Each structure stands twice: as C-alpha cells, then as structure tokens.
Amino acid sequence: MKSTYRVLIIEDSEPLSNLYMQYLANEPIELTCLGTGQAALDHLQVSTPHLILLDLKLPDMSGEKILQWINEQAIPCAVIVVTSHGSVNTAVDLMRQGAVDFLEKPVSAERLKTTIRNQLERTRLQGLVEDIQSNFERNTYQGFIGSSLPMQNVYRIIDAAAPSKATVFITGESGTGKEVCAEAIHHQSPRTNAPFIALNCGAIPHDLMESEIFGHIKGAFTGASNDRKGAASQAEGGTLFLDEICEMDLELQKKLLRFIQTGRFQKVGASKEESADIRFLCATNRDPLQEVSAGRFREDLYYRLHVVPLAMPPLRERGDDILSIATSFLVTYAQEEGKKFSRFTPEAEVVLRHYPWPGNVRQLQNVIRNVVVLHDGDAVSIKQLPPPLNETLSDQEIKSLAHLAIPEPVNHANAIDNQISSPNAEDGIRPLCDLEREAIQKAIAHCGGNVLKAAVLLQISPSTLYRKKQAWETDEA
C-alpha cells in the first residue's frame, strides 16, 4: 500500500528516470517523473510534492532557476539536487539557497533510497512539530531554561524525535547545550530507563578512541591488563551520544558506520563479534557538510547519521532567556556560597542582554559564578561583572537602553481618562490590527521576505505569521 508521500523527479534523461523509478519501485511513495523545467513548474502549480529530486541541467532551464522559483512561491517541499561530477560546489551553493541535500551522479540504488527515506522521515517529524499548538510555550524543559521562540522549536523537535529510533544530529556553537539536548532526547524516549553514555570524541586521544567505543580484551595492546567494556556495551538498550563526532579519525569512522548499519562490533584484539541495541545521537560545533567536502568526515557516515538535524541556537539569539538563565545561576550559586544575591540591577540586565556571548551558556555560567564568589550584595551591578562585560557599553548607552530591562509600569485607567479628556484624543489613534499588520510587514521586509526570521524577531510562532499573512493576501485578492 502506497503512502501519501509524493516524490517528484525532474530529470531530462529518460534512461535515468526509468532507473530511478526501478530503484524506488518498492518504496512506499507516490512517484512522478518529468523531463523539463517548464513541465515541472506547471505541475507544481497544481500539486505540491513532499520531496523533489532536481537535476541541475535541464534542456529548457537550469535547476537553480527552478529552486529559485520554488523559494519565491514559498512552496513547502524539500529539494534534493542531483549533480554530475565536478559540480559539487554548485550543489553546495544551492543548499545555501534552500536545497536540503545533494546527490552526485552516478547515484546508487542504496544511496538514493537512504537519502529519500531520511528526508521523508524529517518531513514526518516536522509535521508532528507543526501539529503542536503554536501557543504552547514552556519556560523550562528537561534541563533547559528559556521560553524564546528558538528554544520552543528545539523543545518541539525533541518531543517529535525522541520516541523515534532515528538518529539525531545536533549542531551548534560550543556551550549551547548540545549534551543537555542529547540527554533530553534520551529521557523523553522509550529508552529513558536504560543507560545514557556520552563520549567526547575530541577529548580522547585517537589511538584510544576505538577502545573507548568498542572496548578491548586483555593483552590487546600495551597497558591492556584486563578486559574492558566499551561504550557500545555499556549503552546496551539505551543511548550512545558521540559529541564532537567530526573529530573522529577516518579509519574509526568506517568501523562506526558498520556498527550503525549492522548493530555488531568487535572489541580491540578480539576475534569474535558482539551485538548491541543502541540509539545513536551525535553532535558537532562544526559544519558537518563542510567537513565532508574537506574529506575529514565520511560522506556515507554523514548520510547515515544526519537523519533528524537539530540546530541549537546561540545564546545571543535567545532574547530574554539570557536573563532567565543568569538569574537561575545567580540564585543557585548564591545558595551554595552563602551569599544574598537574588537579582541584577536594570543596568546590569542591559549589559547581560546585549553582550554577544561567544561562549554561550557555558560562558554565562562562568561569569555568574565569578560574580558570586568575588562579591557581596543583594543585586549584581555592572561594576561587579568581570571584563569585558563591565566595559561593553558606555554610560550613555546604558542609560538609553536601561528602560528595556524593566519597563515602566503603566496606569491604564489614567491613560484612558487622559485620552478621553484630551480634545485631540482621536489624533494619531489607529486600530491595533493596523499597527500589528504594519509591524509584521516591516519585520518581513527587514528580513528580505523570510517569514521565519521575521517570526523570530517578533517572538511569535511562524505558523501564526503565515496565517495572518495569508489572511491579508486573501482580503486583497
């Protein structure tokens, strides 16, 4: 029985189209093949597929032009670019323009099926995320603190991905909480009562990494005085988290790929294989696709692991989460150190809120610990913050921004009375819906038409923004 997932192949070579159809004959998808760009554009105006396999070179137009049209029309479908050898750089550029992946010709049956399955799994999970009510916000979640829109999206992806067996590939700058994210996925999964084993591939010497993952037997190498279980055995039935996976050397990546594919591994020095039932999670602070292009990360391992991508937002993009996290650290450390700190002055809040935090949450944690250990008082002032925070803004800038930290209270009753009693009360007064529409339109224009970025700036749900935008366009039609 075919699923409701629709896949469109845009390929001008009839033999290749037939080959792809043969490869995908037993996949649970509804498959359509078209040979020209114009035929594809005509098809997309009446039917929206979940996934498009797009050849870069077509007889009537380029694949790049088709991708540009899809982006301009905001068609909600994923695009995988198919390119010939020597055009990989072009394909990578197209990924920056919105394509989700690329395949290099000739495409093997297994590679084609794996790539399409992975992308359709992402589509399924994204659908689950969108089904969650847009106004369902959480201030804390499985070790995280924060209610910003970027973090709400992280929470929803974890909710959707955790029950699955799919591998989650976590990316983000150092200190953004990638291991906290991995633990959250584990604790939200059916494996929550089984072990969670984390390995930092960048902190373990390369010649010991294989033993750390797979274990070794006595006498396998100098210093191996006893048999030792590796992380694979320790994580049986649970989750194995490989942090900074792009630091792993290529030879070990090959063995890891086989383990992921078969569930079987061999201890260092052993002659027989063992098996383990494990859910894999991995993370890196690098761009994994660039690592693949540079030859430092195996392409086949990347596609095996990169099933559900999850990007952790940097702290500077999380708005008032900065103050929530800082206050939580402040109260905790004050209790530990026997201090009275419980809040920040409005000026200190301004500095914390506007500092770029290159070290993210880890840096914020260290800053607050420093303040509590070295100072005393009830409220943390700017002078108590360590460099460079106590010199990031001038006094004039702090005064001009201080009102952003703690808004002035408004007496709505007096404000209404003043408006009624004013002879010019109606001057300049506009309906709230007009002001909202103007603010949203300005935000979308500022973001170059990117509705998602505009939603982040406005701190509202993207689905809400899309809904309002569609309603206005319908009214104008």
TrEMBL record:
The keyword ATP-binding applies. It comes from the Bacteria. GO terms for biological process: phosphorelay signal transduction system; regulation of DNA-templated transcription. Residues 6-120 form the Response regulatory domain. Keywords: ATP-binding, DNA-binding, Nucleotide-binding, Phosphoprotein, Transcription, Transcription regulation, Two-component regulatory system. The modification 4-aspartylphosphate is found at D55. SMART domains: AAA, REC. PROSITE patterns: RESPONSE_REGULATORY, SIGMA54_INTERACT_2, SIGMA54_INTERACT_3, SIGMA54_INTERACT_4. InterPro entries: AAA+_ATPase (IPR003593), AAA_lid_NorR (IPR058031), CheY-like_superfamily (IPR011006), Homeodomain-like_sf (IPR009057), HTH_Fis (IPR002197), P-loop_NTPase (IPR027417), Sig_transdc_resp-reg_receiver (IPR001789), Sigma_54_int (IPR002078). GO terms for molecular function: ATP binding; sequence-specific DNA binding. Residues 144-373 form the Sigma-54 factor interaction domain. This is Sigma-54-dependent Fis family transcriptional regulator. It comes from Enterovibrio norvegicus FF-454.
